[in-house]
């Protein structure tokens, strides 16, 4: 079995790590790859899931999130994969970033995170 994590990157500002993003193969329960697959007519295995985007609150407003996303998209393309992601429906600032970057909303789904927790997520795909 291949590992899910393909790559990860960090961002620095003034010598301090202030951000992170990961790129993974799709795993069981990932909705965005399935939605993209249906829309694009390609196998879900042709996607890479952008995950764990984080920018320190003190470092926001410097374009770090956009730069991390650009690096992740480039990493997916270098692997011949199309980047997709999901984000909690309640995380409106992250969703706004993805829309500003031209990502398309694929749909909104409920995901079971544990036997007692179900969350609503928005699934996005990078521009083609």
UniProtKB/TrEMBL annotation:
The UniProt entry, under Pfam families, shows: Acetyltransf_1
CDD domains the UniProt entry points to: NAT_SF (cd04301)
Transmembrane spans: none
User: Which top-level enzyme class is recorded in the Swiss-Prot or TrEMBL entry?
Assistant: transferase
This protein's source sits in the domain of life called Bacteria
InterPro entries this protein is in? Acyl_CoA_acyltransferase, GNAT_dom, NAT_camello-type
Where would one find the signal peptide in this protein?
none
Keyword annotations: Acyltransferase, Transferase
- Enzyme Commission number: 2.3.-.-
| Gene Ontology molecular-function annotations | acyltransferase activity
Enumerate the spans annotated as N-acetyltransferase domain. Answer: 1-126
Name of the protein described by the UniProt record: GNAT family N-acetyltransferase
From what organism does this protein derive? Micromonospora sonneratiae
């Amino acid at each position: 079995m291949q590992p899910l994590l393909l790559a990860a990157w960090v961002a620095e500002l003034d010598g301090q790590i202030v951000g992170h993003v990961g790129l993974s193969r799709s795993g069981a329960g990932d909705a965005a790859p399935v939605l993209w697959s249906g829309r694009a007519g390609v196998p879900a295995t042709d996607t890479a899931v952008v995950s764990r985007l984080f920018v320190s609150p003190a470092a926001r407003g410097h374009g770090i999130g956009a730069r991390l996303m650009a690096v992740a998209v480039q990493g997916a393309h270098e692997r011949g994969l199309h980047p997709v992601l999901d984000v909690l429906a309640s995380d409106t600032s992250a969703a706004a970033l993805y829309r500003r970057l031209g990502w398309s909303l694929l749909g909104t789904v409920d995901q079971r995170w544990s036997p007692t927790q179900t969350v609503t997520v928005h699934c996005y795909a990078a521009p083609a």
